[in-house]
Amino acid sequence: MATTFLKPLHAGKGRSIAQALGRSTDYVKNPDKTDNGEWISAYQCNPAIVDAEFLYSKRQYAAYTGKTHKDNDVIAYHMRQSFKPGEITPEKANKIGYDLAMSLTKGNHAFIVCTHVDKHHIHSHIIFNSTSLDCIRKFRNFWGSSFAIRRISDILCLENGLSVIEDPKPSRGSYGSWLGENKPLTNRQKLEQMIDAGTGCIAVVLQYVAVISRLSIIPQAAQCNSRTYDAYDASARALALLYGEQTDTDDAQNGQPENCLVPPIAFHRYPIDGVRYPV
């Protein structure tokens, strides 16, 4: 029994075609995952320099056709075929992956098959060149290709005495949808909880910004993330300064710190329905 996956590969922003190909092929050829390269096979390419050969074919394609590379062009395709734990050997998994790639590309595109054995389930990574062997055409992904790959994979599994998924389930959507109630809170949600728990009522947005400024923190949305500073610690310190320095009785009764830099303003929440609700 095997599950399949197909993903087109792009160079991406800030990376050359050579860098993108090298990164993908180096990952699938990882010697720690393939028993030092024992479970690597290839068609019409040398596994040691597969990225260079793919790149050369694209230069030949540009020379023959006169077409230049575009940012959204597919440079290769990455297939993954994962097998049921304990049902297959690495050798057979690699052979099935080879046959799967050959059947899909019809022998018109070079590819490499790397079987990984570092997990409890054996799985093969297949990367095939989007440019054809004659360097005048490209592989065109088609509607329903995922179903076609799964069908070919099932046929190969049956031919090799393996089980197949009788009633495959449709995708469950995004990872967050799959987690449901177990989905962890976002940084924003955690910060909102801290503010609500620490204040009970947020009615001093400008005061909060002023205190943040006193802590030498720039209150810009683009910088409010864990990569720039510890938002949670900063918020806790800001709230401590904002609500922990009330020494004047009148100020405490009015809910206004004595060191307030600006008058308090009403805080409004913006729920999903877009309606403002004053606190």
Could you explain how this protein is built, in words?
The structure is a single chain. This protein is an alpha+beta fold and 279 residues long. It has nine helices and seven strands. The strands form two sheets. A five-stranded antiparallel β-sheet has the order 1-3-5-4-2. A two-stranded antiparallel ribbon has the order 6-7. A hairpin with a 7-residue loop joins strand 6 and strand 7 (277-278). The radius of gyration is 28 Å and the shape is globular.
Task: Specify the number of helices.
Answer: 9
Number of strands: 7
First-to-last CA distance? 56 Å
Mean pLDDT: 77
Largest sheet: 5 strands, antiparallel
Summary tags:
279 residues, alpha+beta, five-stranded antiparallel sheet, two-stranded antiparallel sheet, 38% helix, globular, disordered C terminus
What is the element layout, followed by pairings?
Layout: E1 2-10, H1 17-28, E2 40-43, H2 50-65, E3 74-83, H3 90-105, E4 111-116, E5 123-129, H4 145-159, H5 175-179, H6 187-199, H7 205-214, H8 231-243, H9 249-254, E6 268-269, E7 277-278
Antiparallel strand pairs: 1-3, 2-4, 3-5, 4-5, 6-7
